UniProtKB/TrEMBL annotation:
Protein name in UniProt: tRNA-uridine aminocarboxypropyltransferase 1
One Pfam family here: DTW
Domain of life: Eukaryota
GO cellular component term of the entry, any: nucleus
Organism: Enhydra lutris kenyoni
A single GO molecular function term of this UniProt record: tRNA-uridine aminocarboxypropyltransferase activity
Transmembrane helix is among the record's keywords: no
Length: 301
C-alpha cells in the first residue's frame, strides 16, 4: 500500500498555498495603495459630500473654491467648520511661504485650517524677527549644521549658556555691578525653559528655498533635519528624490518625532488629523488617475 498522499490532496494543498500567497499579495498591495489606512482620522464624509456637490463659495472673499479658500485660510460654505477636526499642537508653527508658490497648490494651508490657533503663514519677505527668541525657536532645514529632533533641547540649552556668557564678557561694567549681573544672569539661565516653543517651515519648491533660507533673519536659528521618509505627494518635484516631502507631511512627521523623542510620550495618533485634507485628496486624485477622470483632477488643482 502506497504511503504517498492521493494526487487530489496534493493539488488541494498547492491551491491552498497559492490562495494564501495571493491573499498576502493583495493585502500588501492594498497597504501600498493606501498609506493612510492606519491613521486615526476623523470622518471625511463632509469632504465626500463637498466633492460631489462641486466648488462652493468662500464666505469671506466670495471666491469659488473646492473644500477651502486658499486665500482666506477658511473652509468654504459646503464644508461646515464644526464638521472638521481641530488639532491641538505642542508648540507654535510658523510657515514662510515663497511669493512664487501657488496658493492653490500649497499643502501648508492644511495646517492653518486644522490647527488655526497654533499655525501662522507668512509670505516672504514679510516674516517676523526671531533673533531675541533664538533659544526657543528652530528652523526645519537639512544641511551640515542641522541637528536631529532628539538633540534640540541640548542645543537650545547651549544657546542660553552662550547668551549669558556674551553678556558677562562686557568688561566696561564696574566690577561690583558686573558681579551682580553675572549672578543674576546665572540664575536666569537656570530658570529659563529650554523647551522648543516655535518651529519654522519653509513652503516652496526646493529650487526656491535658498532665497528664504539665506535671509539673515533665519541664519542664526538652530536648524533641524527630519528623518528620511517617502512622500505621498501627487505633485512630485521633477528630478528630486521621493524623500522630498510636501509641507504638511514635513509638519506631521516632525510632530510625531517630537512627541516621542522630546515629550517622551507614546504616539497614539494625536496629530493624524493634520492629514485630514491631504489623505482625502491623495485618494481622490489616485482614483481619478485610475479612472481617467480629468474633471476631478481639475477641481483639485
Amino acid at each position: 500500500m502506497s504511503l504517498n498522499p492521493p494526487i487530489f490532496l496534493k493539488e488541494k494543498e498547492e491551491n491552498n498555498s497559492k490562495f494564501v500567497e495571493i491573499q498576502h499579495s493583495q493585502t500588501t498591495s492594498i497597504a501600498a495603495e493606501d498609506p493612510f489606512q492606519n491613521l486615526c482620522l476623523a470622518s471625511q464624509e463632509v469632504l465626500q459630500k463637498a466633492q460631489q456637490s462641486g466648488r462652493s463659495k468662500c464666505l469671506q472673499c466670495g471666491g469659488s473654491r473646492m473644500f477651502y479658500c486658499y486665500t482666506c485660510y477658511v473652509p468654504v460654505e459646503n464644508v461646515p467648520i464644526e464638521q472638521m477636526p481641530l488639532v491641538k499642537l505642542p508648540l507654535k508653527i510658523d510657515i514662510i511661504k515663497h511669493p512664487n508658490e501657488t496658493d492653490g497648490k500649497s499643502t501648508a494651508i492644511h495646517a492653518k485650517l486644522l490647527a488655526p490657533e497654533f499655525v501662522n503663514i507668512y509670505t516672504y519677505p514679510c516674516i517676523p524677527e526671531y533673533e531675541e527668541k533664538d533659544h526657543e525657536v528652530a528652523l526645519v532645514f537639512p544641511g551640515p549644521k542641522s541637528v536631529s529632533i532628539k538633540d534640540i533641547s541640548f542645543h537650545l540649552q547651549k544657546r542660553i549658556q552662550n547668551n549669558v556668557k556674551d553678556k558677562n564678557d562686557d568688561t566696561d561694567k564696574p566690577f561690583i555691578k558686573r558681579k551682580k549681573t553675572e549672578e543674576q544672569d546665572s540664575n536666569d539661565s537656570k530658570c529659563q525653559d529650554t523647551t522648543l516653543k516655535k518651529i519654522i517651515f519653509i513652503d516652496s519648491t526646493w529650487n526656491q528655498t535658498n532665497k528664504i533660507f539665506t535671509d539673515e533673519r533665519l541664519q542664526g536659528l538652530l536648524q533641524v533635519e527630519l528623518k528620511t521618509r517617502k512622500t505621498c505627494f501627487w505633485r512630485h518635484q521633477k528630478g528630486k528624490p521621493d524623500t522630498f516631502l510636501s509641507t504638511i507631511e514635513a509638519i506631521y512627521y516632525f510632530l510625531v518625532d517630537y512627541h516621542t523623542d522630546i515629550l517622551k510620550e507614546k504616539y497614539q495618533g494625536q496629530y493624524d488629523n493634520l492629514l485630514f485634507f491631504y489623505s482625502f485628496m491623495y485618494q481622490l486624485i489616485k482614483n481619478a488617475k485610475c479612472s481617467g477622470d480629468k474633471e476631478t483632477r481639475k477641481l483639485i488643482h
